[in-house]
Design brief:
The chain is of the alpha+beta class. Helix content is 31%, strand content 22%.
Length: 219
C-alpha cells in the first residue's frame, strides 16, 4: 500500500505503552504525528525519542498528539524508555506502539506485505524502511510524509515548523515561502482571485510578480 498526502490515514487497533488504542478515536479532533522506528535499543532512534519528549510541550500548544512506533513488543519499549531517560534526559511521555506483528508497518506501507516471523530475529537493517513521519490532520487525512535513512537523525524542529504552516494554511487562504517561520510574511494562495484578495487584504500586498503576492501573516 502506497500512501500519499491527502489520503485518509489508515485506522488501526494496537497495544501501546499507554494501553490499547484505536488510532482515529485516540486522535479525536486533534492533529497527530506518527513517527516510526525499525527496532528498540537503536542509537539514532534513542536520541530522537528523547528529543521528541523534550519537545512535547510545543506539540501540546498546537493541539498535536504524538505517537511512536517500533517493530518490537511493548515490554521492550518500557525497558528502552529507561535508557532514553538516562542518556537523553527525557523519557517518552507519549504512547509507543508495539508493532511486533508488523501490522501497522505494513498498513502504512513501511514494510512489505509478505513480512512475517519473530521480530526479535530481525535486525534494524531488515526494518530500515520503518523510518517515517506522518502528520495527520483532524480530518484524519495525511498532511505530510517524511522518510529518513537509519543513519540520519530526524529534525523534529522542522516537523513543528511544517505543522505551523499546515495549521495556518488550513485556516487562511495563504501559502508559506521557503524556510518560513511563525510570524514571517506569507503568500496569498494562487486560488484566490484579485477581487477576493482585495477584500481580504484591503491594505494591499507586495507583488514583485503578478503571481507572487506577499502579505504579513494573518492572525
Amino acid at each position: 500500500m502506497s500512501l500519499r498526502i491527502g489520503d485518509i490515514a489508515p485506522d488501526f487497533e494496537a497495544q501501546t505503552t499507554e494501553g490499547k488504542i484505536r488510532f482515529h478515536d485516540w486522535l479525536g479532533s486533534s492533529w497527530g504525528v506518527l513517527f516510526s522506528h525499525p527496532k528498540d535499543f537503536t542509537p539514532v532512534c534513542t536520541t530522537e525519542l528523547g528529543y521528541m519528549a523534550k519537545l512535547k510541550p510545543e506539540f501540546d500548544k498546537r493541539d498535536v498528539k504524538i505517537i511512536g512506533l517500533s517493530v518490537d513488543p511493548v515490554d521492550d519499549h518500557a525497558r528502552w524508555a529507561n535508557d532514553i531517560k538516562e542518556t537523553q534526559g527525557h523519557a517518552p511521555n507519549y504512547p509507543m506502539i508495539g508493532d511486533a506483528d508488523f501490522k501497522v508497518s505494513k498498513l502504512y506501507g513501511m514494510l512489505p506485505a509478505e513480512v512475517s516471523g519473530d521480530p526479535a530475529k530481525r535486525t534494524p537493517a531488515d526494518n530500515q524502511t520503518v523510518r517515517n513521519v506522518f502528520v495527520v490532520g483532524p480530518d484524519k487525512k495525511i498532511k505530510l510524509i517524511l522518510i529518513y535513512p537509519m543513519t540520519t537523525g530526524r529534525n523534529f524542529d522542522e516537523v513543528l515548523r511544517v505543522i505551523d504552516s499546515l495549521q495556518l494554511t488550513a485556516k487562511h487562504k495563504v501559502a508559506t515561502p521557503v524556510n518560513w517561520k511563525q510570524g514571517e510574511d506569507v503568500i496569498i494562495a494562487g486560488s484566490v482571485s484579485e477581487e477576493e484578495a482585495k477584500k481580504a487584504y484591503p491594505q494591499g500586498w507586495k507583488s514583485p510578480r503578478p503571481y507572487l503576492r506577499i502579505v504579513p501573516q494573518p492572525r
